[in-house]
């Protein structure tokens, strides 16, 4: 069963044709490392997958659910299955680490925000939050404010928040881009350990080609809005990845026929 199935997806920003018929399947439980130079469409694809951006034509299925056919409430329910780890952490800086992790359960609670506030959260939620923090090695920082943590520690909090969400798919958009090399390796090791333990599906974008050779099951390379390489990690050489990075260009609509430029139904 595919956790993610992307078929002939196109995305435009004005006259710019960013995703150009992109097709990619990710089976349940697989970890895919997505590579590509700036402007190739990686982040746009991630935004389409988590519902932050609307694609213009093609199909995206998450666990056999076609995104373009879901109502807003159905889409919100589906998003609970998809955890996102961002480059910039997306934490609430002026509240505690513990509170940020509790926010991960927001979509599961009938009364929303109120039931995820640390002063009102149930004992079960509080224990889950502490368990998630312990798993990422930050139980001792539960009462610290996020703004007082290092970048690597903040990314660990973001991973703990995703664990609290009980997501089945993890989308990690350049999760180590803001970290030094040592902290970046530690975060990648932790992330892959956690998803392996839970049997999660992962799509992780990276810029560091050397690291890409060490993590995941498959390497997928994007160029000009489409997939140009999709192979098991063990079969992809560093030189071949470097060659695919060279000469990266963004694609606009000027080369498209008028019919192709017309957007179709969006989610």
Automatic annotation (TrEMBL):
PROSITE patterns: ABC_TRANSPORTER_1 (PS00211), ABC_TRANSPORTER_2 (PS50893). It is a peripheral membrane protein. SUPFAM superfamilies: P-loop containing nucleoside triphosphate hydrolases. Its main location: membrane. It comes from the Bacteria. InterPro entries: AAA+_ATPase, ABC_transporter-like_ATP-bd, ABC_transporter-like_CS, MetN_ABC_transporter-like, P-loop_NTPase. It is found in: Cell inner membrane. One of its GO terms (molecular function) is ATP binding. Pfam families: ABC_tran (PF00005). Keywords: ATP-binding, Nucleotide-binding, Transport. Residues 4-249 form the ABC transporter domain. This is Phosphonate ABC transporter ATP-binding protein. It comes from Vreelandella lionensis.
